[in-house]
Write a structure and sequence with these properties.
The protein is globular. The chain has a three-stranded antiparallel β-sheet with strand order 1-2-3, with no helix packed on it. The protein has six helices and three strands. Helices cover 52% and strands 11% of the residues. The structure holds zinc ion. The site of zinc ion has 7 residues, from helix 2. Zinc ion (ZN) binds next to helix 2.
């Protein structure tokens, strides 16, 4: 079987003067670049900023007209909160500026909301100023196992927190 569309080598990744790298113990690393958007390249900043703004507006309008998310199926069946339980209450608290209360309802959702807010702020600034974009490039294989373990540990710790604070 021949793969006629496969390039003979990997993509040539060039470092820019403003590139930095984060090296892990296993030798793999992430290249951090600030570079202009290439012709025809997907404008992630514009896309995700618009998606976030549209979703936030939809959620706000839904909330205002009294629509609420359905009750948690996992909680109804098991009597225990699921890892995502408290997310709606956390977002409502955040929208009212109550950060500590949001964190108590669901820490991971609160952190994710902050990460999303930070990304939207960055996207607004680079779109408004026409600045170079931040791009991360995985070199010689990201430590996928480490990332999976970290994500799983964060989920488990968050779940434990949600259960502990629902008692
Ligand atoms: Zn739930």
């Amino acid at each position: 079987m021949e793969f006629t569309n496969m390039p003979s080598g990997g993509p040539a990744l060039t470092s820019t003067p403003r590139a930095g790298r984060a090296t892990s113990r296993s030798g793999s690393h992430l290249e951090v670049h600030w570079r202009p958007l290439a012709a025809g390249e997907l404008d992630h900043e514009r896309l995700w900023l618009l998606v976030t703004l549209a979703a936030s507006a939809l959620a706000a309008v839904s909330w205002q007209i009294g629509l609420r998310p359905p009750p948690c199926f996992f909680h109804q069946v098991t009597g225990l909160p699921c890892p995502g339980c408290g997310s709606t209450r956390a977002v409502v608290q955040l929208a009212q500026g109550h950060i500590a209360a949001a964190f108590i309802f669901n820490p991971l959702t609160t952190l994710a909301a902050f990460a999303l807010g930070t990304y939207c702020l960055y996207a607004t600034v680079v779109l408004a100023s026409g600045s170079p974009r931040l791009r991360l490039t995985a070199q010689s294989g990201l430590p996928a196992g480490l990332l999976r373990t970290t994500a799983l540990a964060a989920l488990v710790a968050n779940w434990w927190w949600v259960i502990a604070h629902s008692m």
